[in-house]
Amino acid sequence: MEGECVEGDCINGQGTLTFPEGGKYVGGFRNGVPHGKGTLTLPDGFKYEGQLKDGKCHGQGSATLPSGDNYVGSLENDEYHGHGTLTDANGTKYVGHFKNNKRHGKGGMTLIDGTKIVGRWNKSENIGKGVIAFPDGRKYEGQLKDDRPHGQGIMTCPDKKKYV
Q: Is there a domain that residue 81 lies in?
């Protein structure tokens, strides 16, 4: 990150760095690079608060993206990685594991209509068995694909009738 140190020690301490295109970083530095706890704000609306390592978002933090998406959790080399919560601009919320910015591993997602999905993801796609609870009271347990029932499963209706 190239910019001008306007306050403090931007080499090996705490300081404030401003960027020519706008935006700033306030926080820790090591060897002239953002490192430790800090806040990065960019003119496009991106904001990150949390841990940095060698100039990259790394560790626990929260990020607000220009799209309006919000992420809180573990990051590695500027990517969602580990356990976190991603709420997109339209209100869909995923809580679970991430790998390389994708839903990956166990997690649960709540869609804007109230549908709840619990299962496993691989590169942000459902894989294997899971559970979907629909707002109308129906519940599906079985194979999932693209956040929908797919393949073998059992649909239980509010009246307790089951369909295979």
A: no
